[in-house]
Each structure stands twice: as C-alpha cells, then as structure tokens.
Specification:
Elements (H helix, E strand, L loop, with lengths): L25 E5 L2 H4 L12 H8 L20 H11 L3 E5 L2 H4 L10 H16 L3 E5 L7 H4 L12 E4 L5 H11 L4 H4 L7 H13 L12 H7 L6 E4 L3 E6 L12 E2 L4 E4 L16 H14 L4 E6 L11 H19 L5 E7 L18 E3 L8 E3 L1 H12 L8
Parallel strand pairs: 1-2, 1-10, 2-3, 4-6, 5-9, 9-10
Antiparallel strand pairs: 6-8, 7-8, 11-12
Helix pairs in contact: 11-12, 12-13
Length: 401
C-alpha cells in the first residue's frame, strides 16, 4: 500500500470563488461483488449467472476474461478498507453476492462462510470510521434461480438533449422512458409516465396486439406503490441527443435509439470523447437532477454512481480528474442554484474491477489494480489523490502545491 499524499500540482485550475459542499454532505466510492470479490467457487458459494455466462461464452467478453479472481477482494478486504480509509471516504458502497450468502438462492440455507466474510467487511469498515452502504443485488443472480425461470430487468438512465430545437418533445419522451420504473414510485400521481404509456399503447395497436404491451396498474396497485421510498438513487455517467429517426436507420436500444418511439440517440461533437460509450457531458448531471426535482418534487437525492473509464492502466489520469471535477461542479450548482436536495456522491469505482462484457479492458478505478500480479497490487492514481483532497477539504477550492 502507498499512503495517499495530497499532491495536486497541475491537477486543478486556479479557483476564483469558494465552492464548498454543504455541511453533512458525504463522499464515498463503490464496487460490486462480482466485479471485485473473485473467489467464485470458494467454500459453499454457488455459481452466479455471471459465472455461468463468462465461463460458457468467453467470446462475448472483449478480452475473454472472467471474474473468477477479479480483484480478489474476498481475500483482500482489509486492503480495500485501508485504501478507503486513506482516501478519507465517508462511506463505501459494496454489494452482497447473493450466491455467496444464500447458495441455494433462498433463505432456507445461509452460508456461514458468506456471513463471516460480510460481517468482517462491515465491522472492519465501521471500526475505521467508514459507513457501510450495502447494495442487496448487483446483477449476480444465483444460477439456481435463473434455471427456474427466464425473467430479466434493466433500467438505465441517461440525460437526453434535443438535437434540434424542434425535438424537445421527443427528448422529454425519452427522459420519461429512462424514468419508467421510477415514475410509479416517486411521482405524485403514480403509474407509468403518461407520454410513454400512450406511445406504447399506440405502437402495440399498430402491431396487432389486443392490448398494450405495457401492463396496466389497478388503482389499488398505484396507491400501494406510490411513495414507497426514502430517497432517490441516481446513477449518471453520460448523455445523449435525441432526434427523429430516419427511414432504414439501424437502432439498438438504449445505445442508438428505438423504433418503438421512432427516435435516434447520438452524441454532440462538442462533448468530450471518453472510453467506448462514455462521452463526458458534465451539464447533463445537473440537468438530470433538476429535471428529477421538477418531476418528482423536493425529495432527497443520492448520486450512487458516477465515474470515468480508460482503456489503459494509466496512473496520471488527468481525464478522470477533469471528469470528477467538472461533474462535482455541476452537482454543486444543482445544490446551490437549483436547490436540489443532493446529500451524497459516490465515485465509481474505488478500484479497477471486472467491467462486465468489457472484461478488464475498461478501467474505472480511483486505484489501479495490477491484474498481472497474483497479489493484485493496489496503487492510487492521480484521481485518487484529487478525490481525497476534495473529501478532506469538503470543497472544490483546492490549494496548489
């Protein structure tokens, strides 16, 4: 381990005004079980759907890798806590591996080994003054449950700008599509977003369905679901522009658009290019927060994922520093100018990890993992020093050294 020293020369531009975060605002970092734990078949852990997928379909992964060892956080949890403490994190968000804790998929059998691992991690975080924030499910369904049925659900949220001035109505439609599963819970009226419900009903009728493919809520269900929250968790990485699709245009939801809505998604050439799909557009996070406040009211928002990827294990990651700085500036503007009640910000990710279908070719970590080292050596990047300084000062106004 290398102790974090706050060395910030060349990392930040000169500051012209005080930019302090509100008292009580929290900074953290996040990971997910399959992406970091490894130890895929240790003790009585059963396979997850991602174990099966990567073992059976290596060609679907960019570098043909898997998460069998990943960052070996199952064995190196104390090292991860030390990294989090060096950063000064207020909280660490991690997920519990369903098949590690409940190998059969059900609570009729609880793994003692799984309980021990997560108790050690949670108690270790608390002992070091770091709040554990637990995600109950992060994509690693037990394979035993998957074998019982074929049900999948995904919800991705992007900020959408109209590509042209006359496309605002279409952009608003897609914003509501990305908020489809939030609307029944957070809206004052409950139920689906009306514009999305109307469009899907129309396309369903055109396709010969006897009823809309979007199930209808009963009034009892609307009232039962509505308002069942304590806060709104937002994952934001990037934005897209929206325009009417051209005849014959190839569209793939959610990357390039949807023929369901007849709309194409793309990016503005002026936005900063990043790795793969991740185009940096910092104003998008502010606009997303403001839109959500306007849509759902003055509720508490926690940013649960925001981060930047590189394809190489670069240590002086100025692009990531810029990404975090620029997005945190927009979060502050949302708090101070738009009066959005944002109470927490989570960097994705604390350490490099197994990035799903990108394997180990996409690196999000504040801390570099040497995946060629059997000990999975951890080394803080420049962005880790920057983020630690922001946390330490509770501000974006950082001194030069």
């Amino acid at each position: 381990m290398y102790p974090l020293s706050v060395v910030l020369s060349l990392l930040v531009a000169a500051c012209v005004a005080e930019r302090k975060f509100p008292p009580g605002f929290k900074f953290g970092a996040a990971t997910a079980a399959y992406q970091v734990e490894g130890a895929w078949n240790v003790s009585d852990k059963s396979p997850s759907i991602w174990d099966t997928f990567t073992h059976d379909n290596p060609d679907f992964i960019v570098d043909k890798s898997n998460g069998d060892m990943a960052c070996d956080s199952y064995h190196l949890w104390e090292t991860d806590i030390a990294v989090a403490k060096d950063l000064g994190l207020h909280f660490y968000r991690f997920s519990i591996s369903w098949p590690r804790l409940l190998p059969n998929g059900h609570s009729n059998y609880v793994s003692e080994d799984g309980k021990r691992y997560y108790n050690n991690l949670i108690n270790g975080l608390i002992a070091n003054g770091i709040e554990p924030v637990v995600t109950l499910y992060h994509w690693d369904l037990p394979q035993k449950l998957q074998d019982l049925g074929k049900v999948g659900l995904t919800n991705q949220q992007l900020w959408c700008e109209p590509k042209n001035s006359d496309e605002e109505e279409n952009a608003e439609l897609i914003r509501n599509v990305f908020a489809l599963f939030a609307y029944p819970i957070y809206s004052k009226t409950g139920g689906w977003p009306p514009s999305v419900e109307k469009r899907i009903a129309e396309t369903s009728e055109k396709e010969g369905y006897s009823r809309s493919r979007l199930p209808t809520f009963t009034q009892e269900e609307i009232e039962f679901i509505k308002g069942t929250y304590d806060f709104y968790g937002l994952n934001y990485y990037t934005s897209r522009t929206v325009e009417t699709a051209q005849p014959g245009e190839k569209l793939s939801w959610p990357v390039s658009g949807s023929w369901e809505f007849g709309l194409a998604l793309s990016t503005d050439p002026s936005w900063k290019a990043g790795h793969a799909w991740l185009i940096s557009y910092p104003p998008g996070i502010r606009r997303q927060l403001h839109w959500l406040k306007e849509k759902f009211g003055d509720i508490e928002f926690q940013i649960l994922e925001n981060g930047y990827a590189t394809s190489e294990p670069v240590m002086y990651d100025q692009g990531r520093v810029n990404y975090y700085r620029d997005h945190l500036e927009q979060v502050l503007l949302a708090i101070n100018e738009d009066k959005v009640n944002v109470t927490a910000y989570t960097a994705w990710s604390l350490i490099d990890n197994y990035e799903w279908s990108s394997g180990y070719t996409s690196r999000f970590g504040l801390v570099n993992i040497d995946f060629n080292d059997p000990n999975r050596k951890r080394t803080p990047r420049a962005s880790a020093h920057y983020y630690a300084a922001v946390i330490n000062s509770h501000s974006l106004d950082l001194p030069h050294h």
